[in-house]
Design brief:
This protein is α/β, with parallel strands linked by helices. The protein has twelve helices and 14 strands. Strands 5-4-6-7-1-8-14-13-9-10 form a ten-stranded mixed beta sheet, with helices on both faces. It has a two-stranded antiparallel ribbon with strand order 2-3.
């Protein structure tokens, strides 16, 4: 089937990465610990989990974030989600070698947004119910909208180009990277900051507990013993740049953005379509957009939530696309190490996939030890593995059937 429309096929690179996760406050710490098979999932201390089914999460240690107030003077009034986003953006820009000036930067800013300042708003409500003061910090009010972290980045870095916040649950920041690549590929902007941020809060924690979608132990993606996910938080920002613009300034790319696919299966608000046919459509749409054959895919960064239904449906989709070759393609889920970071998950996974391509190493599926016949894939158990990658999938299959697959490739 031919594409539904044609467009200028400019080459798009990822030239910078910023990562804030439970494994570390920066890109390199996260990568080193991730490849070593370490887990950032532990006791939840951000709020009291008494009464919940589980009491663990992949929680970020804010004390490690490098975010000087001299550069971000309003940081004192920001939410956790915005602090993650600002730190990731600063790291990504530095990694790409893009120097900020006092002048406006007509770049695009496309971010996946979720809870934003909901954790801080919950503290405000709890304090008021106890008869406490009305105002303690501006962040309790101005950070509630889902686009607040996107606005914070734009204001702090003086970014004046297109500003988009995507909220499609767990596929939000995967779509954000794809949209950013379209803006660059179509010549709208030379540079885009893409990714997403999300922070733990009581509402999402209670919601996933009420769905019985969480495990009382750390998540075990693709494992026969899996019983549910572990929630996490964090942020990723990727510098998505026109290749000619990047070459002109001597930038070194991580990977090339080849294409992406977005579908909705209209099946159920929280359950996946079990046969894998719905997610197969997403993968095939991405392959078509990227112009990549199934045989050229050497790695899949899977959605891998560690819920029984999701993992089996995901693997069924890969079987439908790749056939018998599915057992030969490494399929790892980093949610066993970083938890499910919801609207930030896809951006974090895209960043890790880009790093895997550049460094020739695929991360393991932390927590995996017992194979499941329903998941006949190679989950890369133990530690990271050396692997030459021509093209890779970064998959996000979200609530409400909002699915997205991003395809990244090696820069020739």
């Amino acid at each position: 089937m031919p594409p539904l429309y044609s467009r200028r096929m400019g080459e798009v690179w990822i030239t910078g990465v910023g990562l804030i996760t439970a494994l570390g406050p920066d890109r390199e710490t996260t990568w080193r610990r991730l490849v070593a098979g370490e887990s950032g999932i532990g006791p939840l201390t951000l709020f009291d989990p008494t009464g919940f089914r589980t009491r663990i999460a992949a929680q970020v240690d804010l004390s490690g974030l490098v975010l000087p107030e001299s550069r971000f003077p309003s940081v004192r009034h920001t939410s956790r989600a915005s602090r993650f986003a600002l730190a990731a953006a600063a790291e990504a820009l530095g990694d790409a070698g893009l120097t900020l000036s006092a002048e406006a930067h007509p770049w695009a800013l496309v971010q996946g947004g979720g809870t934003a300042g909901l954790f801080e708003a919950e503290a405000f409500v709890a304090r008021r119910l106890r008869g406490g003061p009305l105002v303690r910090g501006l962040g309790e009010f101005v950070e509630v909208p889902q686009d607040a972290p996107t606005d914070r980045i734009a204001q702090a870095l003086n970014i004046t180009g297109p500003r988009i916040t995507v909220t499609t649950a767990c596929s939000s920041s995967t779509i954000a990277v794809g949209l950013a690549a379209e803006l660059v590929r179509d010549g709208e902007v030379p540079v885009a900051l893409a990714g997403g941020t999300d922070a733990l809060c009581r509402l999402t924690y209670a919601g996933f507990n009420s769905l019985h979608a969480v495990d009382i132990e750390p998540a075990k993606p693709f494992d026969r013993r899996r019983k549910g996910l572990s929630l996490g938080e964090g942020a990723a920002v990727l510098i998505v740049e026109d290749a000619a613009h990047a070459r002109a300034r001597g930038a070194t790319p991580y990977a090339r953005v080849l294409g992406y696919g977005v579908t909705n299966d209209a099946f159920h608000m929280t359950q996946p379509e079990p046969s894998g046919a719905a997610w197969e459509r997403t993968v095939r749409a991405a392959l078509l957009d990227a112009g990549v054959a199934e045989t050229d895919v050497d790695y899949i960064n899977g959605h891998g939530t560690a819920t029984e239904q999701n993992d089996s449906a995901e693997c069924a989709a890969y079987r439908r696309v790749f056939g018998a070759r599915v057992a030969e393609v490494p399929v790892s889920s980093i949610k066993g190490a970083l938890g499910h970071c919801l609207c930030a998950a896809g951006g974090i996974e895209a960043a890790v996939t880009a790093m895997a391509i550049a460094r020739g190493v695929v991360p393991p599926t932390t927590g995996f030890s017992e194979p499941d016949p329903e998941c006949p894939v190679d989950p890369v158990p133990g530690v990271g593995r050396n692997c030459g990658i021509r093209a890779a999938l970064s998959s996000s299959f979200a609530f409400g059937g909002n699915s997205a697959v991003l395809i990244l490739g090696r820069v020739a």
